[in-house]
Automatic annotation (TrEMBL):
Annotated source species: Streptomyces prunicolor
Enzyme Commission code: 3.2.2.28
Residue ranges constituting the Uracil-DNA glycosylase-like domain according to the UniProt record: 18-179
MF annotations from Gene Ontology: hydrolase activity, acting on glycosyl bonds
Enzyme class: hydrolase
Taxonomy of the source species: Bacteria, Bacillati, Actinomycetota, Actinomycetes, Kitasatosporales
Encoding gene (name): mug
NCBIfam families the record matches: PRK10201.1
Protein name: G/U mismatch-specific DNA glycosylase
């Protein structure tokens, strides 16, 4: 893995990272926003401590552990990646409430275009902020966007100590089973 200096990471601030998306995906995973490592590499969930890629494999979504640089391969499994907020920051707490709400509005309009079967929002706090649903919990949601159903998953950030890779994989696995129906 490429090592970046702090100055190189800071230079990636506010950089946009392209979505990994196609029409009609089974599951579109939605992060909060790109971190600086993701923005520097152009690959989603690129920070070494992020558990997205291992949990994706442990839950059975992918047949092997993938590297962030292989993100394009997700499309062959009917999976994609986007973010609530496109702007890269060092920490999610740098985002304003209005950025979350505007990101939620933009995401909702893009879902009518892309039409995934499931939107999987990675982080209950991000979901609550983006869609003004203060009572949301991890799991399937009542809300839909057209025919797109919504599942809130735990945030795979290494900072989320409430969830282990194993317990996250169980929740991701519940979505995987639901997405097969």
């Amino acid at each position: 893995m490429t090592r970046f200096t702090q100055a190189e990471l800071e230079a990636a601030r506010d950089r946009l990272v392209p979505d990994v998306v196609a029409d009609g995906l089974a599951v579109l995973f939605c992060g909060i926003n790109p971190g600086l490592m993701t923005a520097a590499t152009g690959h989603h969930f690129a920070r070494p401590g992020n558990r997205f890629w291992p949990v994706l494999h442990l839950s059975g979504f992918t047949p092997r552990l993938m590297k962030p640089a292989e993100q394009g391969e997700l499309l062959s499994y009917g999976l994609g990646i986007t973010n609530v907020v496109a702007r890269a920051t060092a920490r999610a707490d740098e985002l304003s409430g209005e950025e979350y709400r505007e990101g939620g509005r933009l995401l909702a309009s893009r879902l009518t275009e892309w039409k995934p079967r499931w939107l999987a929002v990675l982080g209950v706090t991000a979901y609550r902020a983006a869609f003004d649903d203060r009572k949301a919990q991890v799991g399937p949601q009542e809300r839909t966007f057209g025919d797109t159903r919504v599942w809130v998953l735990p945030n795979p950030s290494g900072l989320n100590a409430h969830w282990t890779a194993a317990t996250m994989a169980e929740e991701f696995g519940r979505l995987r089973v639901a997405a097969q129906d």
